[in-house]
Write a structure and sequence with these properties.
Elements: H1 3-6, H2 20-41, H3 50-64, H4 83-90, H5 108-123, H6 127-155, H7 160-171, H8 174-179, H9 186-206, H10 210-224, H11 229-248, H12 252-284, H13 290-296, H14 305-309, H15 312-320, H16 333-362, H17 375-399, H18 413-429, H19 436-468, H20 480-502, E1 522-523, E2 526-527
Antiparallel strand pairs: 1-2
Helix pairs in contact: 2-6, 2-7, 2-20, 3-4, 3-5, 5-6, 6-7, 6-9, 6-18, 7-18, 7-19, 9-10, 9-11, 9-17, 10-11, 10-12, 11-12, 11-17, 16-18, 18-19, 19-20
Length: 528
């Protein structure tokens, strides 16, 4: 049995790839998200996040010197070359805050900062290093937003409106856009993990090819080489690939093929970056050095792990804060987010019920075949399992005395965006008005416009706060640039939400019943 037989082409009525129209819309919405991050990347003063950005930038500076730092390495204290880092470190009260505590992370993001160190030296302008590393993070956030839309397309290829809406939902938390404008590795790490998930789903939907497997292995390597959660992504995507292949071909040959392909998908990242995690175990006693860091910074346990995991108020507040910046807390904006979420969850339940009812009617009319999970099912299971592991780790971090930050939830945004988009469109599908696909696209455009408008409004609050604090002074020689970037981003957002209404969709056959259900039902290797 060939690879093509193991995972044959996609269902005949599902497009192999997103249309040019959809790709343009996703790119425009991603550009809007990146524009907000880039504004902060080129304006915010380093001292505002000196405790985080100083060690992160110093990691890249150490790599530029040919040294791989440890969590005991001091930050760069060269007043001539890196005045912002030096000033920030000197303001810290304790010596432990003048160390590169971020050295527990793999080096990929910081390797991307090495050219900016060299360019800053060549131009004799220390601002170049700061703005450059921030720019990498900001652009990666835009890539993440774009990739979430593509993942949504792989899960629901017959419903391009879901991909558009998932992209808008990912772009809407201005809190995350602001966080991505600093020297942090989160957006690069989540973008790499999302690319791994996307590559896996494309293999499951369209079949195994050499190029797709190479993309999956390379993406997995990038994810694992940026942050520890990327290792979890690699393991889960590899397991999803192997199990689904085995379910498709339950012979000894199928077992050998599934094992071999899974070994490639997980082994390449392991061989490429596994040494770093072994190094952490040797130096600190665990792969992420979390125990050593908690001890160093004298974290005091606040609750047990179980108490954190079962604290709805904590998780609900953390979730709402993705969209509600600190100056707007208490204004009632969280009720908007809660309402959207509850409506989406209601739509998800209604869609599941409708799908089960339709499946019951079809049972007995179709000759039974071996059960093979749909691509949508596999994709959602991978995203759910990955999010669950991340939440468990965050609960452990919180119970150990760690301070939660909204950017830590960036990892689960692909799942959140897809679930919300599918749930909201399920409500739209239940409304008997017009042709179902056009109805979905109009609703997706309207909801996206609302979400992006809300993002722009909350972002403006952060900008006004920045101006009030007098922090709007990074790279004064490029002062017009951030404003131009914001204007371009706003134009991209307006064009992105209007384009589906002005540019008609390509012809695509939809289910004759007129009901889309919760998710499409194409299976790995073809229709169910």
């Amino acid at each position: 049995m060939s690879h093509a037989a193991v995972l044959a082409s996609e269902s005949t009525d599902a497009p192999a790839r997103p249309s040019a129209r959809l790709v343009v819309v996703l790119a425009l919405l991603a550009a809007f998200a990146a524009s907000m991050s880039l504004y902060f990347a080129t304006t915010q003063a380093l001292s505002y996040h000196a405790r985080d950005e100083g060690p992160n930038a110093s990691y890249a500076i150490s790599l530029h010197r040919g040294e791989l730092p440890t969590i005991d390495s001091p930050v760069a204290l060269d007043r001539e070359r890196f005045p912002q880092i030096t000033r920030g470190a000197n303001r810290e009260e304790f010596d432990r805050h003048r160390l590169i505590w971020t050295a527990n992370h793999p080096p990929l993001y910081y390797l991307l900062g090495v050219p900016w160190v060299a360019l800053a030296d060549a131009l004799d302008n220390p601002h170049v290093l700061i703005a450059g590393m921030r720019g990498v993070s900001a652009l990666a956030y835009g890539v993440l937003v774009f990739l979430v839309g593509l993942i949504a397309f792989e899960v629901t290829p017959r419903r391009p409106a879901a991909a558009m809406l998932a992209t808008a939902i990912t772009a809407s938390p201005a809190v995350l856009a602001v966080a991505a404008g600093f020297i942090m590795n989160d957006s690069v790490a989540v973008a790499a993990s999302s690319l791994t998930v996307l590559a896996t789903l494309r293999i499951l939907r369209l079949g195994v090819t050499r190029n797709r497997l190479i993309v999956m292995a390379v993406a997995g390597t990038l994810a694992a080489a940026t942050k520890a959660p990327g290792v979890i992504t690699v393991i889960m995507c590899g397991a999803a690939l192997g199990v689904t292949l085995l379910l498709r071909d339950r012979t000894w040959k199928g077992l050998r093929r599934a094992t071999w392909l899974t070994a490639i998908a997980t082994g390449v990242p392991g061989l490429a970056i596994g040494w770093f995690y072994v190094r952490n175990i040797v130096l600190y006693g665990d792969p992420t050095a979390s125990s050593a860091l908690l001890e160093r910074y004298q974290r005091v346990q606040v609750d047990t792990w179980f108490e954190v995991m079962t604290a709805p108020r904590f998780w609900h507040g953390w979730y709402d804060h993705l969209w509600v910046p600190l100056p707007l807390r208490g204004t009632g904006l969280h009720w908007v987010i809660d309402t959207i979420t509850l409506v989406a969850l209601l739509g998800l339940v209604l869609g599941v019920v409708a799908r089960l009812r339709d499946h019951g009617r079809e049972q007995g009319l179709v000759v039974s075949a071996p059960r093979v999970p749909s691509v949508a099912t596999v994709g959602l299971l991978v995203l759910i399992a990955h999010a669950f592991v991340i939440v468990v780790n965050l609960a452990q971090f919180r119970s150990g005395g760690g301070n939660p930050h909204e950017r830590y939830l960036m990892t689960i945004m692909p799942l959140v965006a897809i679930v919300l988009s599918v749930g909201l469109l399920a409500i739209v599908d239940a409304v008997p008005w017009g042709e179902i696909r056009r109805r979905e696209e109009i609703a997706a455009a309207v909801i996206s416009a609302f979400l992006l408008g809300m993002a722009a409004a909350t972002f403006s609050v952060s900008v006004r706060t920045q101006l009030h604090l007098g922090l709007d002074r990074m790279l004064p020689e490029l002062r017009p640039l951030p404003d131009v970037v914001l204007v371009v981003g706003a134009i991209c957002a307006m064009v992105g939400v209007a384009l589906p209404l002005l540019w008609g969709p390509p012809a695509l056959k939809r289910p004759s019943s007129g009901r889309s259900g919760v998710i499409t039902t194409e299976t790995v290797g073809g229709a169910a």
